[in-house]
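Q: Joint fold for the lines below.
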Amino acid sequence: MKNICVIGVGYVGLTTAACFSDLGNKVVAVDISEERIANLKKAILPIYEPGMQEVVVRNVESGRLHFTTSYEEGLKDAEFVFICVGTPEGVDGEADLRYVRIAAETIAKTMDHPLIIINKSTVPVGTGDWVSDIVKETQPKPIDFSVVSCPEFLREGAAISDFYNPDRTVLGSTDRDAANRVAQLHLPLRAPIIVTNLRTAEMIKYASNAFLATKISFINEIANICEALGADVKEVATGMGYDKRIGPRFLDAGIGYGGSCFPKDVKALAHMANVHGRHPQLLHAVIDINDYQRRHVILKLEEIWGSVKDKVVGLMGLAFKENTDDMRESPSITIGDYLHGRGAVVRGYDPVAMENASKIMPYLNLAEDPYDLARGCDAVVVLTPWNEFKNLDLERLRDVMRQPVMVDGRNLYEPEIMQGLGYTYRGIGRGYNGSNGKAKKK
Ligand code: UGA
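A: Joint structure:
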């Protein structure tokens, strides 16, 4: 049993706090938001994350997990302090480190015994050294500490299982003893542990996210070529994925990546490269392709109707991906804003993200379920691959629509089946049976 303090109770912080307490450690989670902490004490979570509520309640009840706004309380017995605060996108794609700075300064002012400070937030390469300098400069009197980078690789919507089943643990530090002690904490997870220097660990995180984003933009580019040439990108991805060097995952073509990580991290990496005189051409292409994918959905509607003005369009799914209520950088915002701006009536349905979505897209006309969404629509546009959309009664859906038009931004359905049901159906990259329907066999 170790004493751990976690700063920040967003996705990364709450998962770190809840899961390390579940492994038998004593964890105090600190956040500057009184409201978040008051809610957590009542088991009201700031995020929707499958399984999280149970883990939090179980560990609060066992006395291993506490929530507080007080750094004093958090650091009192701590051997480790995890910095898990947000690093939003700042100017020119540069990561905004103001919350990391506040956390580092407050830790420095509050600590009264040696600490291992572990950075889990995604931070620009060099931030570990910067945190170390801040702590040194801010401490009222010198007390030993060490900074270790331990980037987080969990996915929203799968945070708990990703925490317990990581592919690897990356630890960056030049202090071998500190790195070993953090490694001990992670031993129950039985994953390979890679120890590097601080900057390399920070870079592993960016390079991993940028590679995954590249994989998505790559398959989206292939999808667009498939549309022109009459091939089916889903089958192309399957055929490619059997090659062990390529692998089947992250090859789902669609409306492009969103969320709080990929868009921000790819831009931040490109920014770091530019600042240091490098030309990250591939990263720029990844970003451009991703932007285009959102417009692509709209182009498909305009290709069918000429103009979207006065059309009623139902957005099926609003969150940036399934199993989350997170709307950050969700493609649905760009697509909804455009449709609304061009005079369409925009309706929306999402199993859990509607409250968050309506704050960002106040024009949305919200529905109770997919059928209610489709009622009277000129088109339904599938934007989030929620499981509940995969087995819809598509005849019932068609019958309540004004025109049976579907743009399937996640390739959930089969073009031939949809066309057989009488839909005007457009998938992404689905050759002559779907998509634009124009390409013909020679
Ligand atoms: C991502 C990474 O997968 C995590 O490893 C990382 O820890 C996290 O960012 C982070 O940096 O914190 P997350 O943003 O939760 O996790 O979501 P993903 O499941 O990776 O999906 C990202 C976006 O790509 C979503 O919009 C998703 O719909 C899209 N996507 C994913 C595709 O369009 N196609 C795919 O084949 C896969």
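Q: Anything notable?
A: The pocket of uridine-5'-diphosphate-glucuronic acid is lined by residues 122, 152-156, 209, 212, 216, 250-252, 254, 257-259, 261-262, 320-321 (CB under 6 Å). The first helix runs from residue 11 to 22.
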